[in-house]
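Sequence design from tokenized structure. All designs in this work follow the same two-part layout: the structure record, then the generated sequence. An example of the structure record is given first.
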């Protein structure tokens, strides 16, 4: 593995490309950072795309169509020219951007922002609301991976869930309580450190696990790694994230989140 090439990709906020090019990664604990790259690349590209756009809706659909058209073209080339390294790398890099899934989220935001009642009635319908949850958990339990539009299908399901959670007063699931509000605050740490927590638990109890049934090991690791990651995330939120978030207002043109609430 070319360590310096991988280090350069991480330093340039291109971890999603590093994960694709160096799989399996020599530093698996850094795996979750791939999404940071996708987010930052989106934030860099999206304002430029929207600035040139006359229609947000047309742009969103255009991004979805163009992204997937290029992706399918690269899949085709990669299939018929499997030994072509530039095509292979280009395919991996393009696939890692995932911008079409963000555009799907943008479509739902457009529906909500413009109060398109005809669509909101459909997505707020109890069968659609509940179907999104049951469909998601069913797909996850079965480990379903769609041959095409895999990420887009999951993004569509997530978008329905988020739209209902954020805007539907009769949503099937209600997460507006102190527990979920706090878990939301530390959720970034939970995402970033969940693999670290699992790794720590395995290291601490490795000797005992050798004599335990597989099912017991699985339950033990899930329970105690969850407790550990919540503790780690709480500490990093209060002592690292929170101080940085206080600086956010000095550099942000748009006030959002808890800062917006405090201004009311």
């Amino acid at each position: 593995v070319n360590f310096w090439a991988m280090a350069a990709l991480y330093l340039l906020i291109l971890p999603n490309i590093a994960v694709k090019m160096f799989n399996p990664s020599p530093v698996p604990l850094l795996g979750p950072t791939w999404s940071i790259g996708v987010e930052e690349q989106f934030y860099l590209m999206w304002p430029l795309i929207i600035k040139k756009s006359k229609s947000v809706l047309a742009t969103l659909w255009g991004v979805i169509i163009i992204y997937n058209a290029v992706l399918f073209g690269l899949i085709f080339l990669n299939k018929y020219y499997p030994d072509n390294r530039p095509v292979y790398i280009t395919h991996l890099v393009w696939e890692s951007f995932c911008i079409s899934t963000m555009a799907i989220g943008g479509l739902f935001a457009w529906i909500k922002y413009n109060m398109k009642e005809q669509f909101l009635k459909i997505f707020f319908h109890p069968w659609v609301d509940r179907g999104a949850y049951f469909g998601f958990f069913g797909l996850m339990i079965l480990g379903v991976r769609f041959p095409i539009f895999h990420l887009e299908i999951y993004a569509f399901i997530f978008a329905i869930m988020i739209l209902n959670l954020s805007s539907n007063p009769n949503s099937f699931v209600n997460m507006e309580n102190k527990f979920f509000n706090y878990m939301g605050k530390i959720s970034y740490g939970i995402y970033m450190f969940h693999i670290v927590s699992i790794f720590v638990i395995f290291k601490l109890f490795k000797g005992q696990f050798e004599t335990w049934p597989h099912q017991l090991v699985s339950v033990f690791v899930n329970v105690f790694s969850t407790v550990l990651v919540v503790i780690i995330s709480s500490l990093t939120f209060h002592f690292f994230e929170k101080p940085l978030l206080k600086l956010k207002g000095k550099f942000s043109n748009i006030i959002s989140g808890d800062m917006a609430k405090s201004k009311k």
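The chain has a mean pLDDT of 87. We note this feature because it recurs in several other targets discussed in the main text.
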